[in-house]
C-alpha cells in the first residue's frame, strides 16, 4: 500500500524562535511516526524578512530586485537548516533543500517570480530514502541558476505547488490562528471557525483582506484541486478545509466578513467626461506598479464627473503625486485624499443564488447610521467603503444579521 | 591591452555594518574607475557566523555538518547581496554570486570541504559584461549541488583560488590590521609592519598564531605562486606583500615573533618506555578530532618517561578525559594539566643558514629569568613554551634582540 504523503507548511510565526522550531519538529515527527511521507515547507524565522529589507534599504533605497532575492532567500535557508537539526535531535532522518536545489524553476521576474516547473526527482529520491524532506519556501531559481523569490506569502505557493506536483494526499498550512473564521475574532469575539470553505470563497476573502493565506496559492490549489487544511501550529485542533465544494446540507448565503483598513480613497473631481480619460488615469498608475482596488465613477453632470478609487496605504504618496500631475494634464479639478476609510465585505458562494443580500447589508449599515461611500460587487462578494471609525460596529452588526455568530 | 584583474577579499570586520559596507563599495569602485577588472570575495557580516553557530547549538548540540553548511553559508550570501546594492548605489554595475552559483566545486567533507575545481566561465562572462563580480567567500557546492563550507578563514581560500584560476594580477586580502607585523603591536607598540614576507615564513607565522590569514590559503598561494597583498580596509596605506622570494638586499634572520596563549599543556608521567605507547596515546587523540601541537618526550629513567604535549584550550576537557583513560590502560602515572602557558615563536627563512639563533633566543629568555618548559623547532622557526605571565616580557625582549624594533 502506498504511504500517505503530506505537505506541511509552517509560517514565520510558527518558527519564530528556538522553542517554536523544536515544537514544529515534534509535530512533523508525530506524523512520521504514523508512517506518513512528509515534505515540509518553511518560511523565514519571525521577522527576518522585514529585518533584511530594512538593512537593504539602509544601503540602497532602490535595491536591485535580483540582489534583493539573493538577500531575502537566506531567511528560509536558515529556517530549513535549523528545522532539519531539530528533527535530527528527535532521532529522525531529515534533509533540507533550498528552492534552487530542489528544482523549483521560475521565470526571471525577481521578487515576484512565477513557478514554471518543479523537478521532483530529488524529493522523491529522499522520501524513498526514508527522509523527511524540508524545503525552503518562497524561493526558486531561474534556469540560469539565479535565485528568485515568489512574493509575499510565497511559501504558501511553494507548499501548494509541491503538493500538486507530488500528488500529495493533503496540504497543511500551519499558521498562528486556528483556521478561517467568519470574521476577525479580534473584532468579533463571537466569530466562528469555518469547517469547510470553497476555493472561490477563500480567494475572495483573501483578496478582500483575510490574511491567513496568499491569494495566488489558493488560485493554484483551485486550478489543480489540491485540498488544503489551514490550522494552528500551536494546537492539535482541526482547522478549516479549503476544498472545491462544501458538502454541508443547508446552504449558507454568507460565509464570512472581511475588513480592510489598509486602504485610502483618492477622488479626482470634475473630470472631463470624454472617452479615454479613465484609461489615461489608470494606465499611469499601473505603469508605476500601483494596484488600484475599487473604482467608482459617479454620473456625469455638465460633462464632468468625479472618479474615486482606493489604493493600498503604502502607495498613497506615490499615487497622489501621479494623479495630481494627470489631473493637471486633463484639466480636471481638485484631487482629494481620504485615508480615514475602511472596506467591509461580505463573501459567500450562496450570494450567487440568493437575492436581497445587498439590500440586507445596506439596511444593516443604515440602521447603524453608517454612511456608505463606495460600493463594489463581484459574483460572490459585496464590499462597501465606510468611515474607519464605524468599521468594528459594522462588522459586528453584519456578523449577527447574516447568522454567523456561534 | 589586457585590463588588470584584481581579486579583493574583505573579511567580516570590513563589512560589519552598513557604514563599513558602503566604505568597501567606495574602495572597490575606486579600482573600477582606474579601469581594473574586479572580483570581490566577501565574508559574513561581523559576528554573523558565530551567532548562527550559537543558534544551531541551541537546537542541536551536535548538528549535522551538511545542515551546518546550509545554515552558515547564508552569512556570506547576505554580504554579497548587500555589497552589490552598495556598489549599484555608486552608479557601477555589479552582480553577486554564491559559491555554488559561481562554480566552486568541492568534495563533500562538510564544514571543511576542499576545492576540487572552479568553473570560471560565469565570472569571465560577467567581467566581459563590464560588471564587478562579487563572490560569497567560504563556500562551494558538491557536484550534487549540496552546499559546503571551507572551514574557518575559508574566504581567504576562495580569494586565493579564484586569483589562481583567473590568472589575477594581484590578490588583495583586506583586514582590520595594516599588514603583517614583526609581532603583535598590541603587545609590542614598537612592532614594525613587514613590507615583504615569503610564503614559507607567513605559513609558519600563521600556524604559530598570527591570525591575519588562514594557513591553507597561503599554502595554495605558494603552490601556484599567487602574489598576495595583505592590507587594511580602513586605510589607503600599502600593507604586506606575501611572495615567493623577498628581494631585499640585506638578509633578515628573524622576520617575526608570534605568541599563542590559546593552548594548554598536558603531561603524562611515568609512561612505560616501550614501543607503541606514544602511538597509542596520539592515535586516540587524533581519532577524536583533537589537534596536538608540540610534543616533547623526556629521556627515560628506569624504563619510564614523561610525555608532554599541547592542545588548543577548546579541546582541553575532551583531551584530558581521553588521556586519563589511556594512562590507566597503559599503566602510566599521573596526568598533569597546565593551562597557564604561552608558546612564543621566532620565524624567519634566514634561520636556515644562520647558526646561533636558538642560542640567542634561549639566552634572551634566561637573561629575563624566563624558564623554558618545552622546545620545538622547524626549518624556519623555533618555539618555546613558557609561563603565561612572562609572555609579553619575552616577546618584547626577543623583538629587540633580533633587531625588529622600528
Produce the secondary structure layout:
2 copies of one chain form a homodimer.
Chain A: E1 5-10, H1 18-33, E2 37-42, H2 48-59, H3 65-89, E3 94-97, E4 104-106, E5 115-118, H4 121-128, E6 132-136, E7 139-141, E8 147-149, H5 154-166, E9 170-175, E10 196-198, H6 199-207, H7 215-224, E11 228-232, E12 240-243, E13 256-260, E14 263-272, H8 277-287, E15 292-297, E16 304-312, H9 316-329, E17 335-338, E18 341-347, H10 357-367, E19 374-378, E20 381-387, H11 391-401
Parallel strand pairs in A: 1-2, 1-9, 2-6, 3-6, 9-11, 10-12
Antiparallel strand pairs in A: 4-5, 7-8, 11-12, 13-18, 14-16, 14-17, 15-16, 18-20, 19-20
Helix pairs in contact in A: 1-3, 2-3, 5-7, 6-7, 8-9, 10-11
Commentary on this structure:
2 copies of one chain form a homodimer. With 406 residues, chain A is of the alpha/beta class. Chain A has a domain at 5-176: Carbamate kinase (3-Layer(aba) Sandwich), CATH 3.40.1160. Helices cover 34% and strands 26% of the residues of chain A. Chain A is built from 11 helices and 20 strands. In chain A, the strands form 5 sheets. Chain A has an 8-stranded mixed β-sheet, with helices on both faces. Chain A has a 4-stranded antiparallel β-sheet with strand order 13-18-20-19, with helices on both faces. In chain A, strand 4 and strand 5 form a beta hairpin. The longest helix of chain A has 25 residues, at 65-89. The radius of gyration of chain A is 23 Å and the shape is globular. The two termini of chain A are 42 Å apart. The model of chain A has no long low-confidence stretch (mean pLDDT 91). Chain A binds chain B through residues 18, 21-22, 52, 55-56, 58-60, 63-64, 66-68, 70-71, 73-74, 77-78, 80-82, 84-86, 88-89, 95-96, 98, 100-101, 145-147, and chain B through 18, 21-22, 52, 55-56, 58-60, 63-64, 66-68, 70-71, 73-74, 77-78, 80-82, 84-86, 88-89, 95-96, 98, 100-101, 145-147.
